[in-house]
Structure formats: C-alpha cells, structure tokens
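Issue: copy button drops trailing tokens. Both records pasted manually instead:
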Amino acid sequence: KGMAIGGIVTGALGMIVAAVVLVLGMIGIGMLSECAENAVQDSSGNYVCTIHGETMTMSPKEYEAVRR
C-alpha cells in the first residue's frame, strides 16, 4: 500500500515539474522572439536587445535560429 502511494506522489510531482518546465520554456521562447525582432547588430557581429530592462546578447547563429 505504501509503495502505491509513493508511486502516485512521485507521478504527480513529475507532472507538476513537467508543467513548470513547459511554461518556463514557452516564456523563454517568447522573450527570444521579441528580442530577435528588436535586436541591433553591434560592431563585433553579435545582436543586442533590451527587454523589460534587461540587455540580452545573441550570437549570429542564435539570432538566425530564432528568426526562422
């Protein structure tokens, strides 16, 4: 009986963690897309943008991957 309860608790915790990771991933992808739309290329070839008061820098490869 105790092992069954432990399995249910472990499964529930796994589902909660998966949902949190999914939400954070979607937020991150949205921020990268917004950054790519407003990015400016600097003298070293990197792309720089500011979102919500934070400056982000992307390499040209990262920029191209997000723009696709």
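Record 2 (pasted manually too):
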Amino acid sequence: MLNSYEAKCSRLLINLLLQALAKRDPIRRQVLRVKGCLAGSKAEGLLEQGDMILAINKEPITCFHDIENACQELDISEGNDDGLQMTIFRQGKEIDLAVETDIRDGMGTIRMVNWCGSVIQDPHPAVRALGFLPEEGHGVYVARWCHGSPVHRYGLYALQWIVEVNGKLTPDLETFIQVVTGLEHGEFVRVRTVSLNGKPRVLTLKQDLHYWPTWELRFEPESAVWRRRTIKELDPSKGGDVLQCMEGVSEVIIDYNSGTRHHIQKTNGRDNS
C-alpha cells in the first residue's frame, strides 16, 4: 500500500514538473540531464550522473543559457556564499541541493615541467572530465614522453598521474618541482603512479641531467609570453658538475605575438643578454 501511494505521488509530482517546464519553454519541451562532473569540483560529491535539473533558485531550467544566467547572477550578488540553490529529480524524488561553483579561466595549460624526458603538468580539464582523480589528491599528470629518454627506457609513459617521488607526495606541480630539484644526476628514483583506470604502479628510473635536464615552460597571460626556465642541469664548463639554477637562472623568452625568441642568462640578479 505504501509503494502504491509513493508511486501515485511520484506520478503527480512528475506531471506538475512537466507542466512548469512546458510553460517555461513550450517549443522545445526539454530538460537538462547531468552527464558527469569534473573530478575535484565542488559539484562532484553532490550531483550524480542522470540527475535532471529542474530549477535553480526556484526558476525552471530548460537550456544551457538559463544555467549561465544563474551563474552570472551569483557572481554579481553579495552575501550569497551557499552557491546555486538547485532542484533536481533523482530516482523519482525531487531533491533540493546547494551547489557551489568553481572558477575556470579557460586558459588551458599554461605551465609544464620537462623531467627526465616526460611532460608533467597539472591535470587539464579534458582529464578531469573523465570524473576520476587519485585518492592521494590531484597529483601531477604525465601528458607526453620523449623517445630515448629515461622515462621511455624505464616505462613511465603518458596518461597517468605521478603521486609520489621517493616516498614524497606530489599533489601539485609546485611540490613536484621542489621534490625533483633535490634529485642528483645518475640517482635512481622511485616513482609511484596511478593510471586512468585507478591502477597503482611503482617503478624506478635513473635520472640523466646531462642529456635530459629539468626545465619549466610557463605562459604569462598579461604579456602573452612563454618563458622557458632551466631548473637543474649539468654544467659542462665545470666538468659536469650539477648546476641547480635558482640564483643563476637561464631563460628563453618566446613572444607569442611576434614569434621571436630571446635568450637571457641571469647571474646574481644581472642580465647577460
């Protein structure tokens, strides 16, 4: 008897919702459904795949433009720290949720590190759209690798996260740089990775700073310039001693607008162009 009553209420609720949505947009007569959430986003733990979005802030939602308007109103409003007040339909029930929004600049990848011949960066939106991040945190993502490099020889390929280096967690790119800066030339490095399907793996590789120095490439949106900075390499002028470029920084500046390249060698704060 209880199941019959719940089914009757559910049908009545659905009819009322359909009438409100049809009145909002009588031509298209559609409803938006959640396909997935970006991994690590604030909506990930609240919205589920298959949820139908009925209303935001008590206003019926029938198209992407309605959601965009609601987000813009949230940006200009003051004192609304609870996010979007969403009404969804899940498994025959109407549910009210407060979903906070995330800021996305749309710039894409603006920073990467080349370490042992692998291109390391923060997980980009296309990866996060898969809906998975390692349990240890965001990690740093291996986007590409070079033939003949240490990562090629020892099997550290692309499409996986590096979550630990020599037992030290690498939750973000800045932490990863700090960890690998302390590694010496010829040192065997233990790396723990997690693949896209969540499978963990531990491998060891030998660092080669002679042919594969550690360097960083960063984009500056204000000046539209890419800057290449050497982090650690062997100094051939000193018989192969390790040169950790912190005070003496070697930079290659690429002007995105004109396409020109400038090499700058900084020594003790002075530029030798």
